[in-house]
Amino acid sequence: MDSRYTRFDPELARLGELLAKLERIFHELLLFTDGDVDAALEHLERIGARYRWFNAQFTIDDFRRWLERRGIVQPAGGGAGARPTLGARGERALRNQALETIFQGLRPDAKGDHRTRAPGAGGERTSETRPWQFGDPTGAIDFNRSFGNAFARSGSFQLGEDDLEVFETEHNTSCATVLLLDISHSMILYGEDRITPAKRVALALCELIKSRYPKDSLHVVLFGDDAREVAVADLPYVGAGPYHTNTREGLRRAREILRRAKSANKQILMITDGKPSALTEPDGTIYKNPMGLDRRVVNKTLEEAGQCRRLGIPITTFMLTQDPSLVDFVERFTAENHGRAFYSSADDISSFVLVDYVRNRRRRG
Fold first, then answer.
1. How confident is the model at residue 355 (pLDDT cuts 50, 70, 90)?
2. How crowded is the C-beta side of 324, counted as CA atoms within 13 Å?
3. 150 and 57 co-located in one domain
4. What is d(CA 72, CA 74) in angstroms, rounded to the nearest whole number?
5. How far is the CA of 352 from the CAs of 266, 309, 347, in angstroms?
6. Is there a contact between 292 and 222 (Cβ–Cβ < 8 Å)?
7. Cα angle at 219 between 355 and 261, to 5 degrees?
8. CA 314/CA 337 separation, integer angstroms
9. What DSSP letter does each residue of 265-319 carry, written as one string?
């Protein structure tokens, strides 16, 4: 094997370190700005001026062009009001960073596989292939198909990341999960940002499932005054709004999604920071009462938790507050569903969610 040596260039090395740092900060700012590329770059420019990251030789526009060349950012189109957006590679990088950030805080034994107690053919290779994703082992690459993709793309056998395909494997378990994300006004109330770490968790869960458990399914449902399902690709652009907290409607929407799922294992993970304060009436109107715990709203929410229990759908609630006034409600809710609940600050919620997801998958009965 031949080795090629080049002269070490300290300036080039420093630039590489700076670009890696700027990309990490850029991704964090994207979460904070709900996926607004221009706003994230403006924040980054102000931060960079403070720490002297940019100068006449390397400007924020140079960094923007670097992002565009790598496919992280798609430049604005020619139409009026067009704005730059995240590219597919940028969305994937954002999920990867969220997963890495969260796993850095986990104990070594918190990373688990989908194992069962019974022996079987789990992990056996099949003839099917799929595009390579971050975290896939190199031993699973189908080089015949990968080189074929490279030749079809460029007429040469020079492999690129998008050419790689890996063999599918049979997994020991599968699970259908609905992630319920609270986007009510309380997630940003009084200047406390709870929506950003909650989104980081959602992105990390998506990347965990896509890279480690591709046979699993994950649906994301946002709930405020009402509830709606969004695509994984939309998560970076999600923000809290002037909404009440219609927990029951979020649960009902999740239950309907899971009713159609084919997996034997089904679960709901709910991330919220407040009490239920809204209810969808039979005629479609929304009843709202933000004052205290409205008995009618609470009872309907508890009924929905019981309905999920009867369908074998456990609910794990991650409450982003430890307000004593909410503890009683959450305990009643958890008892009605036979589920679980965790209380934490916004800083701790990320590790709780991923540890619980992995452990829950390992404990399949």
1. confident
2. 0
3. no
4. 7
5. 19, 22, 10
6. no
7. 105
8. 6
9. EEEEEEEESS---EEE-TTS-EEE--SS--HHHHHHHHHHHHHHHHTT--EEEEE
The parent domain of residue 331 ranges over 175-362
Token duo for residue 151: 């030749």
Does this model's pTM top 0.90? My answer is: no
Domain harbouring 180, CATH code: 3.40.50.410
How many residues are there in the chain?
A: 365
233 three-state secondary structure = helix
At position 133, the amino acid (one-letter code) is Q
In 269-302, which positions are buried (b, 16+ CB within 10 angstroms) versus exposed (e)? bbbbbbbbbbbbeeeeeeebeeeeebeebbebbb
292-345 per-position pLDDT tens digit:
889 999 999 999 999 999 999 999 998 887 777 788 889 999 999 999 998 887
Of the three residues 111, 142, 169, the one that is the final residue of a domain is: 169
Alpha helices in the chain (DSSP H): 10-32, 37-51, 60-69, 88-103, 143-154, 195-212, 247-259, 295-310, 324-337, 349-362
Residues 252 and 348 occupy one common structural domain: yes
| Joined tokens for residue 13 | 């090395």
